[in-house]
Description:
Blueprint: H1 3-23, H2 28-38, E1 44-48, H3 55-68, E2 73-77, H4 85-92, E3 102-106, H5 115-122, E4 131-136, H6 142-146, E5 154-158, H7 164-173, H8 178-188, H9 192-204, H10 216-226, H11 233-244, H12 250-256, H13 261-270, E6 274-276, E7 281-283, H14 285-298, H15 300-320, H16 326-335, E8 355-359, H17 365-375, H18 378-390, E9 395-400, E10 406-415, H19 420-425, H20 427-439, E11 447-455, H21 464-479, E12 483-491, H22 497-502, E13 506-507, E14 512-514, E15 517-525, H23 531-544, H24 562-574, H25 579-583, H26 591-596, H27 601-616, H28 623-634, H29 640-647, H30 651-675
Parallel strand pairs: 1-4, 1-5, 2-3, 3-4, 11-12
Antiparallel strand pairs: 6-7, 8-9, 9-10, 10-11, 12-15, 13-15, 14-15
Amino acid sequence: MSSGDEQDFMVLERRLQAMRERTFVGREEELGVFRSALRGACSVLYVHGPGGVGKSALLRRFEQEAKAAGRPVTTLNAYTLEPTPAVFEAEAGSVLGDERGVLIIDTFERVQGLEGWLRERLLPRLPVGALVVVAGRIAPDLLWAADPGWAEALRVLPLRDLAPADAAALLDVRGVADDLRGQLLAFAGGHPLTLSLGAAVAVKDRGASSRWTPARDVISTLLDQLVGEVPSAAHRHALEVCAHSYVTTEDLLREILPDDATALFAWLRRLPFVESSRLGLFPHDVVREVLEADLRWRDPQGYADMHRRITAFLADRTRVTSDAEVLGAVGSLFYVYRVVGSTAEFHSWRGDGEVYEDAFRPEDAEALARMASEVENDESGTAVAYWTARQPQAFRLYRRAETGELVGFCSWLRLYEPSEEEARIDPIVATAWANARAMAPLRPGEHLAVGRTWVRAEYSDASPVTDLIQWRAVGYCLRADRMAWSFMAMRDDDPMRDYLRTYDMHDVGEHAWLGNTEYALFAHDWRAVAAQAWLDRLDRLLLEGAQEAVAVPASSMAVLSQADFADAVRKALRHLSRPRELAANPLTRTRIVVEHGGTDPAKALRDLIEQAIGRLSGDPRADKFHRALVTTYLRGAPTQEAAAERLGLPFTTYRRHLAAGIERVCEELWHHEIYGAVDG
């Protein structure tokens, strides 16, 4: 190389170094730890963190600091080393003879198998005063901590994302326009690599809008850097499940990957970008987003299949879990719908830890009434005092974990019949009854529910309190037995109104006034659109981007009065052998047929009627009714007179038996409609 070429090279090197220094932000705490280590606070500094979190940039800064302090520095990138003790010592051995030497090892995960040898054989030979910095994705083995000899000699330094102010500063020095920073920060958070890649794209694309999203090449780069190679397709699928789910447990993995769940869960648990909580495993936000984006682009059908299997598992868990576990189950279920509509605006996804749900106790009554008066008005406080005395089980309280302070509460009143006293004390309840009667009245055994919330102003926007309250509401609706209507009372200025429409809950009928405050009642008829149909609609919104009209409630099932239901059963009996007429029967859109399953509602209705007739044969007192029904409707007697003749009965006796049999079939199917499937 000529002197001119060498000079040009040195100029470029200085320019690169200057740019790196200019774009290095934050990390004051980590730099402080390193400066203490240079002064002898420890002999080994072990830095670990997920890919792209800025380990290499920090190590370059460490190198500058050490050189500025007059310390000789040896820097190794384990990516280029053969993972053997001999090669490693040959490259790093100079530090063993220099008490002021500093050895910096990057990408140590590439030679992680040498960790035991490093700890037991090489590092103990360091001269006092020398410093070794090890940096990799994987946290140090627990054997370091188990050895008391390393207690003072080793300092472990986990490297996390940049603080919000430092992340914003990074975008500033990279020249990102003000109107793009919010969207970039929302996607990247404080992850340095993602911020840098996004900044490079945003600066280059002057036509980018405030709705910036990462392009395919950015996602591909992030996947390579953050995740790297995985051992198998099953491991990749486990990662994708982990990315889609709020938290991943071994039983969830077992549902999706039954043959390898235990081993895959253990593998996920060891990944540097996967963390653990009391609920399960979850990945770094950026890893989650790039895996999600890649799978949706690369394999849309595979993504949809995985989503539906996960939601089926979580929905079933929500229905059967204990009351104490409902919030975690619903939170996990709702997280998979986090990009539907305006969901993200009204969830913080911080509902675990900062606040907690508490049961109502009689001594809480006064505090709840007082909060309701403060948050809304005195009439609201009066209504709360009334209901805490009559339905204490309807209330849930939300407290700050740090102090136990009450910061919000909700109620879900379960109501079976109107009451003049309740209507006088609580106009919201009176209006709910009026709206239900006007649209689709309750049937025997059904109830309606009225939900309300009260939250301190500092938690009224998306917060851990509103997260938990929403999860409790969804849990109530998905688990309630024979609930006809749910009504959510919302103040007229509440920003969540559009959010509720997204979830098929609509401002219906009359509004209520409590004091000087107007309330809209957002309703859902769970007989018309049952829980599974409600979740299926959310699946379509997520997977297909379906633009359903949100101004009109969906209706997929018919809600019939008992008289109309019985009339439809009689018509269905007459049309059992005529599929076209049977398909037009309103019973094909009722709960009994929809829950029976299958793709042919007419066949399902015929099966249900035949089963109901068949069950009469098991009752000796109803055997004559059974024979009348079978002869008339299943064996095709041309007329009732012919049916009576076949049975050898006088016509009036036959008609009495037939009428009694029809009545029994109507009663059984009605019971099935209202209370669920008949056993046996």
